[in-house]
């Protein structure tokens, strides 16, 4: 794996019986890059991500993440990445403080390090008034911001975000992307799936999946030039129509 490349995917495929969810995809992601993995619901984005984070075995093809093979070293991959799912990221029946402590332990941090990280998060996110509140009582926007921060507790090389801004208001979405920019600027690679085409504009490069295949991959600017349009939404519509 090249020094500045943190993800290499070659002909990766995932079948479920006769159905091909991910069809022979190949791409690379560089260190510190915000890599957008776009597509409509059901395009294969989440299935591809699950293979890359070591929780689903590919049917065929190869992939390396953070220098580790998805077949041989899935546990090493998990130690070197952060992961945030829209559907599950924090425990609703634990407080913010308890969630931070729990996930810090899962990531193998010492008690002292967990305490340091918790104090840092409380300060950075302004959690002083809600640190002892149950997560289930918080607005979705707060949950998402805390989830993202918890995924960074162990300083991972790569953070995988699966539809992180689904269902949140525009202001919270913008705040969330500011957190993403800050994290990428500090050298962490961001791999983000979304079906919001306007969010593609925030990415360094974008891969667009249609029916399990990568139909386009480039910077947002170059994709718009290639498809002779002014918005990423129009790029996606042209690809979806074939």
From TrEMBL:
Q: Which domain of life is it from?
A: Bacteria
Q: Where in the cell is it found?
A: Membrane
Kindly state which keywords UniProt assigns to this record, in alphabetical order. Answer: ATP-binding, Membrane, Nucleotide-binding, Transmembrane, Transmembrane helix, Transport
Q: Name one GO cellular component term.
A: membrane
- Give this protein's Gene Ontology molecular function annotations: ATP binding; ATP hydrolysis activity
Write down the InterPro entries for this protein, in alphabetical order: AAA+_ATPase, ABC_transporter-like_ATP-bd, P-loop_NTPase
Which PROSITE patterns has this protein been placed in?
Answer: ABC_TRANSPORTER_2
Q: Where is the ABC transporter domain?
A: 7-236
Q: Report whether Transmembrane helix shows up as a keyword of the record.
A: yes
Entry membrane topology: Multi-pass membrane protein
Instruction: Please tell me whether the keyword Transmembrane is annotated for this protein.
Output: yes
| A Pfam family of this chain | ABC_tran
What is the protein's name according to its record? ABC-2 type transport system ATP-binding protein
Supply the source organism's classification: Bacteria, Pseudomonadati, Bacteroidota, Flavobacteriia, Flavobacteriales
């Amino acid at each position: 794996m090249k020094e500045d490349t943190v993800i290499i995917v070659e002909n990766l495929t995932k079948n479920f019986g006769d159905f091909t969810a991910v069809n022979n995809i190949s791409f690379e992601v560089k260190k510190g890059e915000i890599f957008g993995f776009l597509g409509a619901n059901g395009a294969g984005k989440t299935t591809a991500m699950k293979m890359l984070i070591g929780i689903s075995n590919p049917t065929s093809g190869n992939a390396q993440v953070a220098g580790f093979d998805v077949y041989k070293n899935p546990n090493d991959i998990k130690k070197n990445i952060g992961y945030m799912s829209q559907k599950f990221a924090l425990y609703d029946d634990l407080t913010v403080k308890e969630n931070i402590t729990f996930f810090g332990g899962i990531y193998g941090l010492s008690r002292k390090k967990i305490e340091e990280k918790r104090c840092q998060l409380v300060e950075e996110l302004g959690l002083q008034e809600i640190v002892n509140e149950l997560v289930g009582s918080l607005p979705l926007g707060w949950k998402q911001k805390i989830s993202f921060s918890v995924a960074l507790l162990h300083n991972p090389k790569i953070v995988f975000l699966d539809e992180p801004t689904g269902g949140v208001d525009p202001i919270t979405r913008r705040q969330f992307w500011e957190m993403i920019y800050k994290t990428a600027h500090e050298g962490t690679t961001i791999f983000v799936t979304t079906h919001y085409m306007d969010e593609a504009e925030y990415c360094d490069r974008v891969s667009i999946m249609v029916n399990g295949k990568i139909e386009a991959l480039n910077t947002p600017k170059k994709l718009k030039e290639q498809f002779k349009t002014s918005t990423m939404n129009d790029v996606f519509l042209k690809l979806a129509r074939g």
